[in-house]
Amino acid sequence: MINILIVENGRRGQGAMERAAALAGILNDKSLFNQGIRAEIVENVTAAKSKMQKEKVHAVIFFTKAMEATLKKLAKVYPATKFFVFADYIPDRKVIWVEREWLSPEFMQALVNTIER
After folding, report:
1. Which of 5, 13, 82, 83 gives 59 a disulfide partner, CB atoms 3.0 to 4.6 angstroms apart?
2. How many other C-beta atoms lie within 10 A of the C-beta of residue 84?
3. Nearest to 85 by CA among 69, 68, 102
4. Using one digit for the tens of pLDDT, what is the confidence trace for 17-42?
5. d(CA 43, CA 22)
6. Residue 57 CB partners (closer than 8 Å, separation 6+)
C-alpha cells in the first residue's frame, strides 16, 4: 500500500480544497493504478507531521510554495518520503527535476505552456 498525504494548507478561499479533493479522487481510483494507493487529505503541515510520525508515508503533496523552508526540513527528517509542490508557477533560478517516466504528450504540453508564460 502506498500512502500519500495531500496537504490543503487551509487555503480554502483559493480552491485548495477542490484541488485536493480532485487529486485524492484520481489517486484513489483503483482503475488507474495497479498498486494499492491510499491518498488522504490533511488540513495543514502540522497534521501531515502527526501522520508521518505514526505511520509510513511515501509521498506528501502540497499546493503552495510558501512552505519551502518547512518542506526542506521535513525532507531531512523523513528522507524516504517524497515531497511534491503543485504550484501556480515554476520558480526562477531553480533546477526542476522530473522523473523520466512522467514523459507524455500531455506533460510536455503543460511544460511548454509553462515556459511560454
Report:
1. 82
2. 13
3. 68
4. 888 899 999 999 888 887 889 999 99
5. 15
6. 3, 4, 5, 48, 51, 78, 81
- Are 44 and 69 in contact by the 8 Å Cβ rule? The answer is no
Please check whether residue 42 is in contact with residue 59, taking contact to mean a CB–CB distance below 8 angstroms. no
C-alpha cell at 18: 477542490
Cell numbers linked to 71: 518542506
pTM of the predicted model as reported, rounded to 2 decimal places: 0.82
Cell matching residue 105: 504528450
Q: How far apart are CA 14 and CA 36, in angstroms?
A: 30
